[in-house]
Design a protein that fits this description.
Elements lengths: L1 E3 L1 E5 L2 E11 L6 E7 L7 E3 L20 E3 L2 E16 L5 E13 L11 E3 L1 H6 L2 E4 L6 E4 L4
Length: about 150
């Protein structure tokens, strides 16, 4: 399984980005773009990305909240298990389930750009994925430990 990644700019820097659709409970899947960040301990949707969607902004605040993401303090709320849909390099649909969070920045009014979503280390570990960088393009690949 190889899920293509793309290069993009976010928060003022070049980033490795991932496109996916997310299905929350019985709602229609919505498209998202996230930074793939191995330094981020968990995967979360930004409050900005939820505007106009019927997905709630999270429920219970996690114990370790607030946390600094990109030097911006965030309150992190639990959302729920969600289904994430990706297209692999052969355009086949891949569905993975993952517990998602919602990040709400605690700093107001100084950010020029919207806070992005993040796919963190929890997602990569749970689904046994590694980031592969090649000249022809980057991708996530499932690594089997056999």
């Amino acid at each position: 399984m190889k899920i293509p990644l793309r290069d993009g700019k976010s928060l003022g820097f070049d980033r490795t980005m991932l496109n996916f659709s997310l299905k929350y409970k019985s709602l229609t899947p919505y498209p998202f773009t996230a930074i793939v960040d191995t330094g981020c301990p968990f995967s979360f949707l930004s409050k900005d990305s939820l505007i106009g969607k019927r997905i709630p902004c999270g429920f219970k605040e996690i114990e370790k909240s607030p946390v600094a993401l990109g030097n911006i303090p965030h309150k992190i709320l639990e959302l729920d298990n969600c289904k994430l849909f990706f297209r692999d390099v052969n355009n086949e649909l891949i569905e993975l389930e993952h517990f998602m969070y919602v990040g709400i920045p605690l700093v107001k009014g100084i950010l020029l750009n919207k806070i992005p979503c993040f796919i963190g280390n929890d997602f990569l570990k749970k689904h046994n994925l590694s980031i592969i960088y090649k000249k022809e393009g980057s991708y996530l690949e499932r690594i089997d430990n056999k």
